[in-house]
Design a protein that fits this description.
Elements lengths: L3 H17 L6 E4 L6 H12 L3 E5 L6 H9 L6 E5 L6 H13 L1 E6 L6 E6 L4 E6 L7 H4 L4 E4 L5 H15 L5 H10 L4 H4 L2
Parallel strand pairs: 1-6, 1-7, 2-3, 3-6
Antiparallel strand pairs: 4-5
Length: 194
């Protein structure tokens, strides 16, 4: 329910990637909190029939943390990074060759004697989610093949979501009550479902 344009575009991209038996292009989802960015990431993985590894920008403190995650991905897996705008720049730099070339550049040693080793990674899909699009550096932003903005839901969509939630929770809900909750939810399913 809701985000119809985003879902339609993602369905086309997913069908194309599955038809080619390739990883889906990297996806950036942005918009206000509570609109379904994380849910969409998991749905993408389910629709692709692949595994998802989820983390957040603040949790990846060092380049080694990201390297450990990347080297444990399997072919076509999804790596979901929530709050991707909070990655530190050194970690972000490691992502660039991983996203572009499916490679991890490792520096061994320091100074003039340092050597660079390139480790091949399996093709994977990075899905980044952010509420702060403007805080993403242009080099990172430009490496996403698909960028989608999630918008607030209309009242009818929120009512439908609430009906579904009530059914799942086996809670009796009156139409007038659902309508009032939807009206006050500020277009955000997370707020409506509290």
């Amino acid at each position: 329910m809701g985000q119809t344009k985003v879902k339609d575009n993602l369905n086309i991209a997913i069908a194309a990637a599955k038809g080619r038996d390739e990883a889906l292009d990297h996806v950036l989802l942005y918009g206000p909190p509570g609109l379904g960015k994380t849910t969409l990431a998991y749905i993408i993985a389910i629709e692709m029939g692949i595994n998802i590894r989820a983390t957040s920008g603040p949790a990846i403190e060092r380049t080694g943390d990201l390297a450990a995650i990347l080297t444990n991905l399997r072919s076509q897996d999804v790596l979901f990074i929530d709050e991707i705008h909070r990655l530190n720049r050194a970690v972000e730099e490691v992502l660039y060759p991983a996203m572009e070339d499916f490679a991890l550049d490792i520096i061994i040693g320091k100074g003039p004697g340092a050597k660079s080793l390139r480790l091949k990674l399996p093709a994977f899909t990075l899905i980044g989610a952010t509420t702060r699009f403007a805080l993403l550096s242009p080099p990172l932003r430009n490496r996403f093949g698909a960028v989608y903005r999630l918008d607030f839901y209309d009242q009818t969509s929120i009512e439908t979501i609430l009906k579904r939630s009530a059914r799942i929770l086996q809670v009796k809900a009156e139409a007038g009550g659902l309508r009032e909750i939807a009206r006050r939810a500020r277009g955000t399913p997370r707020v409506a479902n509290r």
